[in-house]
Design a protein that fits this description.
By secondary structure, the protein is of the alpha+beta class. It is built from ten helices and five strands; from the N terminus they run H-H-E-E-H-E-H-H-H-H-H-H-E-E-H. Helix content is 47%, strand content 12%.
Length: 210
């Protein structure tokens, strides 16, 4: 099966989105005001890359979304090496959880402070070990302990009502102001793309903006 046939998006409905053929740049599925998109929200943006990079990518993701994990595990490392580390792309990840487990995972990432992106990476890599299992809390605790959490700091993080409210506010803003309804959704210099794109798709889009 060609890789493009596997590309889709997670949502809280049964719909899925498949990008265009990887041979050419996918067509955007909408545009947003980049200045508005980058205005501060309920939580400070988690940013990777140079502030003055010519291309800015904002990704809305859910930690329990299998397509988000596929992108994080397969495409993102190449995206980081090819564009983020070379100063061509600034990357921002925003929370768009579809369920309480995704909310909990994002809360733990936020509580990791300077280790936000490493925690997100581990949670996506380990997604099958915690997202679908019966006792997700114990599974998340084991991952969190490896990241330096104690039982007490783990419990404190997951019972932080303000943090939960803020994570939900990020999602609500994404949906209401920018039309996000599935994950992953990317805004690349204000153009909207839905679905777990390949590095070929993303390169075709980004190279056209450099």
């Amino acid at each position: 099966m060609p890789a493009v046939a596997l590309l889709a998006a997670c949502s809280d409905s049964t719909g899925a989105v498949t990008p265009a053929n990887a041979a050419e740049a996918p067509q955007p599925q909408g545009t947003v005001d980049m200045a508005k998109l980058l205005q501060p929200g309920a939580l400070p943006d988690e940013v990777m890359g140079k502030a003055d990079a010519p291309v800015t990518i904002v990704e809305y993701a859910s930690m329990t979304c299998s397509h988000c994990a596929h992108f994080a595990n397969t495409t993102f490392p190449e995206l980081k090496a090819k564009y983020i580390d070379t100063g061509k792309v600034r990357y921002i990840l925003r929370e768009f959880p579809f369920d309480p487990r995704a909310e909990a995972a994002f809360m733990l990432a936020r509580c990791s402070k300077d280790n936000y992106f490493p925690m997100v990476e581990v949670l996506f890599k380990q997604q099958e070990n915690w997202a679908p299992v019966q006792d997700a809390k114990s599974a998340l605790l084991q991952i969190a302990k490896l990241a330096g959490f104690s039982q007490e700091s783990f419990e404190a993080c997951l019972t932080d009502q303000k943090l939960l409210d803020d994570v939900r506010a990020v999602q609500k803003r994404g949906a209401e102001e920018f039309g996000v309804d599935s994950t992953p959704t990317f805004f690349i210099n204000g153009k909207m793309y839905k679905g777990a794109m390949s590095i070929e798709d993303m390169s075709a889009i980004i190279d056209g903006m450099l």
